[in-house]
Design a protein that fits this description.
Elements: H1 26-48, E1 56-61, H2 65-77, H3 79-84, E2 87-93, E3 97-99, H4 104-109, E4 118-120, H5 121-124, E5 129-139, E6 144-149, H6 152-155, E7 160-163, E8 166-169, E9 173-175, H7 183-186, E10 187-188, H8 193-212, H9 216-222, E11 224-228, H10 232-248, E12 261-265, H11 277-289, E13 292-295, E14 300-302, E15 307-310, E16 315-317, E17 320-323, E18 327-329, E19 346-347, E20 360-362, E21 367-368, H12 385-403, E22 417-423, E23 426-431, E24 434-437, H13 439-452, H14 456-471, H15 487-492
Length: 509
């Protein structure tokens, strides 16, 4: 009996491979060779395009300038890979939107709607998985990130562990504060759209308080506004809000612009160092001409009991202290196993990789990127929006290059200058060596930032609002109740009374 046959059974046979070469049939042999060559070429293309893994998982921590622009770049460059499922992009961000911070002063002044200062991430990054939450720790050795989401506390299961193959750290920065008495209780920052709109409502509300009170002390404190920090955020916020309040005062029968005290406190001997010394001096002169008290080489010593005490001995009873005195790296950097610089930023290479760590990338405020255009060695790029947007483009391209086995690009961008708004039709600029002030600088400020705000949708909406604001009067409405939307209902339902104004950080009722 044949060893592979049993009585009544069919012989055991194997289906020939589609790529098997049949010497008796030259045409079939030629087709088989062609199929094999096509399969090899397809494999080469997949390797050349970086698709060598089952899935490349890219984790982007942060949804600001760098986070959004990097994810957007990857989304455009890896369309086919995303469609095939070879690449997965996850963006972890505390907010479902990206805030275009240069427009915050104009949003506070009412020139731009707060909805148009932000870009919805889920609409823009429609091919990415957006997770609203905070990354609290990074273990790059194990390629894991610890993330808490909005549902973490209710779920009671603890933080989530996200695994990744490529890590982009772009959490941005947070406000740098000092141990000043009363600062945490009574001051407000100026980094988010919520703070900008809250501050606008608060300023108008203080004018309402001053208009209705008979107590001179309360009136004086309500009309005194102290800004700490002479950088972009402080100077632009002060300039726009003072300009808005000056316009609003015309609708009050007993509040005049000269009744208000606007005070800018700066620890160094100049403000707006980015626009140059000459333009910085002009800005000081312009602000003082508008009756704004600019105090250089001065520090805030205390703001306890709603009294701003300065290092030069001056004391100002006030219900408004705005803190814009710098930023510091995000705490997530210290909670990672990645190398840091002396300033607490990630130690990076000119290719935007984290030094000494593979598959880790960083840019923006969180990264200490060497400035290859600087004359002196060891200098890093400034942590500003101009560099962040350009770094994000190179960072996205370099991740694609790395996935495809290509050579990485070097980030090189010479700082072209700066523009700053000091209120409606007022500004300073120092661009490509040219110094502008007044209306031309203000116009350049608007044109530049309109060209940089993401998406055509936002550009069109901002331009439309600017056009309408030039045709109609400015809005002077305060919606302070938005900060405590349930207060009236709680009172009507017999619940707890509205918040005590003396405990409100901004002094709002």
């Amino acid at each position: 009996m044949h060893p592979l046959k049993t009585p009544g059974a069919h012989p055991l046979t194997c289906k020939p491979s589609p790529y098997a070469v049949d010497s008796a049939n030259p045409a079939r042999a030629k087709r088989a060779v062609t199929q094999i060559a096509g399969a090899v070429d397809k494999l080469k293309r997949r390797v050349r395009h970086g698709v060598v893994k089952e899935r490349a998982r890219i984790l982007v921590v942060g949804g600001g300038y760098v986070g959004m622009y990097t994810a957007l770049r990857l989304q455009r460059k890896l369309k086919q890979e995303l469609r095939r499922g070879d690449v997965e992009i996850t963006v972890v961000t505390p907010d479902p939107y990206m805030t275009y911070q240069p427009f915050l002063p104009e949003a506070a002044a009412g020139s731009i709607s707060p909805r148009h200062v932000v870009v919805p991430l889920r609409r823009v990054l429609d091919q990415c998985h957006v997770v609203i939450g905070e990354a609290t720790a990074i273990d790059h050795a194990k390629r894991t990130a610890t993330v808490t989401t909005l549902a973490t506390e209710e779920e009671g299961t603890g933080a989530r562990q996200l695994t990744y193959d490529e890590l982009v750290l772009a959490p941005g920065s947070i406000s740098r504060t000092l141990p000043i008495p009363g600062l945490a209780d009574h001051a407000i920052g100026f980094k988010t759209v919520e703070e900008a709109i809250g501050l606008r409502n608060h300023v108008i509300e203080q004018m309402d308080i001053a208009s209705s009170t008979r107590d001179p002390a309360i009136r004086d404190a309500a009309l005194t506004f102290v800004f700490v920090g002479g950088g972009y955020a402080g100077v632009e916020a002060l300039g726009e809000l003072e300009d808005m309040a000056r316009y609003t005062a015309r609708y009050y029968h007993n509040v005049q612009p000269d009744d208000m005290k606007w005070i800018l406190v700066e620890a160094s001997d100049r403000i707006l160092p980015e626009v140059g010394e000459e333009m910085g001096r002009y800005t000081v002169t312009e602000l003082r001409r508008r009756n704004i008290d600019v105090r250089l080489n001065t520090r805030l010593e205390s703001c306890a009991d709603r009294v701003a005490v300065l290092s030069d001995g001056a004391r100002f009873p006030t219900r408004t202290v705005v803190w814009t005195a710098g930023v510091k790296p995000h705490p997530i950097l210290a909670a990672s196993d990645l190398p840091l610089t002396d300033r607490g930023r990630l130690k990076c290479t000119p290719q935007l990789t984290v030094e000494g760590a593979t598959h880790a990338w960083a840019a923006g405020d969180a990264a200490g990127v060497p400035d290859v255009t600087a004359a002196e060695p060891g200098r890093e790029t400034a942590p500003n929006a101009q560099h962040a947007v350009r770094q994000a483009k190179v960072l996205g391209d370099n991740i694609v290059h790395a996935l495809r086995g290509e050579e990485l690009e070097t980030y090189s961008h010479k700082y072209v200058g700066s523009v700053a708004s000091l209120g409606l039709h007022k500004g300073v600029a120092h661009v490509y060596g040219r110094k502008l002030k007044g209306y031309p600088a203000w116009f350049m400020h608007r044109v530049y930032h309109l060209s940089r705000v993401p998406t055509f949708n936002r550009k069109a909406r901002v331009l439309a609002e600017w056009t309408l604001s030039g045709l109609f009067k400015r809005e002077i409405v305060s919606l302070g109740s938005l900060e405590h939307p349930r207060a009236e209902f709680e009172l009507a339902a017999g619940g707890k009374p509205p918040q005590d104004p003396t405990n409100d950080p901004k002094g709002s009722s």
